[in-house]
Amino acid sequence: MALARACCTHRSALSAAHAVRRLSVSAKLGKEHFKLLIIGGGTAGAATSNKFGPYLGAAKVAVIEPNEMHYYQAGWTMVGGGMYNFEVTQRPEASVLNNKCIWIKDKVGQFSPEKNTVITESGREIEYDFLVIAAGLQLRYDMIKGLPEAFETPGVCSNYHRDYVKKTFPALKRISEGNAIFTFPNTPIKCAGAPQKICYLSDAYLRKTGKRDKVTVVYNTSLPAIFGIKKYADALMEVVERRNIVLNTRHNLVEVKPDSREAVFDVLDEKGQAVRQAVWKYEMLHVGAPCSPIEPLRKCAALTDDKGWVDVHPETLQHKRFPNVFGVGDCANTPNAKTAAAISSQMETLRKNLKLAMKGKTPTAKYDGYASCPLVTDYNKCILAEFTPNGPLETFPFNQAKERFSTFFMKKTFMPFLYWNFLVKGTWEGPKYIRKALHLGMSK
């Protein structure tokens, strides 16, 4: 039995190694023209590769992705809170891309949609019949003066970055008095709940370790409210008030002074304009990363709106100007929250509409704007926010705005399994049919 397991493991390892080798070598051979080119190998890009690699056949699909590792970034809240080891949130990129696809280990340098080409940073020109832009977004810590230097000092951390998330729990263990400040930026951001999740976990940890009385927990957000959907905002405000967390709205972090351990915030008016500044001393500072589209998109006005996001029809995900281009995930200008759950629901729309476009037909499937944010509020509680831009759209037939252990268990244990085995594999397209069944067909 042990020998059989060993042989099986050996065959799997050889198969994986062969896949990586084939992908790497194939990307360097022959004319670089593909039926489908995917920009990005993150959640959306990997799922797209697994949907269309088998559909179009070997070597018809290519994925441009420079990173060797793929990260389950939704798990970094748990890493920062001391519940996961960082290593469980990463796997080799080759393990999540479909093995019928060509993996081009490079970065996109320039888009030329009029010519149906993309040029990589290394200068390779790649032609396509259809293009799916799943480029995610770019963390812009450079937008905050002094922050890159501050990350080299104790106590400054961010769950949004694979290096800086490793500083969060050590900073939490280290602090014994003073201010623990958590920030939300004045830009679009992926997983908008992440800055307050770690705020709540930090408060819970400080209480558990008997340090909370000497530490002031502060949540400074650039937004006018703690959350964009009123039902969940009301529930979260109850958490904030019960836990004595200092909440400052319309506060945008603009500078960090590591020598004096000060964080400088612009205080914004109702139009988002700075009217004055507020300076806070910190012992711990968790920074919600400002985000933007990647630079090549910001430089390609033909593909983007005036803010640099891929300009798609929000329901069909097809580009408004180029019908052979689709945008999916965080890089698109759809009005939903930028979460992995949103990508799962977008996958059904992309699967149907891209296949229709490939047959010369008009896309008809419609994305409803669904997104979800499991708002961890303690080491055993979670508020499972599910919504569209129009309001809550909940899967379960109970009030999901209430803190529950069951939804915490889903976040900690079930959702990583769902991510690795179904979402990035292209087989999970959101909870729509489960929701309909649980609501006896009376839900959208």
TrEMBL record:
Residues 35-151, 205-340 form the FAD/NAD(P)-binding domain. The keyword Oxidoreductase applies. It comes from the Eukaryota. Its EC number is 1.8.5.8. GO terms for biological process: sulfide oxidation, using sulfide:quinone oxidoreductase. It catalyses: ubiquinone-10 + hydrogen sulfide + glutathione + H(+) = S-sulfanylglutathione + ubiquinol-10; a quinone + hydrogen sulfide + glutathione + H(+) = S-sulfanylglutathione + a quinol; ubiquinone-10 + hydrogen sulfide + sulfite + 2 H(+) = ubiquinol-10 + thiosulfate. It is found in: Mitochondrion. Keywords: FAD, Flavoprotein, Mitochondrion, Oxidoreductase, Quinone, Transit peptide. Gene3D superfamilies: FAD/NAD(P)-binding domain (3.50.50.60). GO terms for molecular function: FAD binding; glutathione-dependent sulfide quinone oxidoreductase activity; quinone binding; sulfide:quinone oxidoreductase activity. It is an enzyme of class 1 (oxidoreductase). Its main location: mitochondrion. Its cofactor is FAD. It holds the Pfam family Pyr_redox_2. GO terms for cellular component: mitochondrion. Belongs to the SQRD family. PANTHER family: SULFIDE:QUINONE OXIDOREDUCTASE (PTHR10632), SULFIDE:QUINONE OXIDOREDUCTASE, MITOCHONDRIAL (PTHR10632:SF2). Catalyzes the oxidation of hydrogen sulfide with the help of a quinone, such as ubiquinone-10, giving rise to thiosulfate and ultimately to sulfane (molecular sulfur) atoms. Requires an additional electron acceptor; can use sulfite, sulfide or cyanide (in vitro). It is believed the in vivo electron acceptor is glutathione. This is Sulfide:quinone oxidoreductase, mitochondrial. It comes from Plectus sambesii.
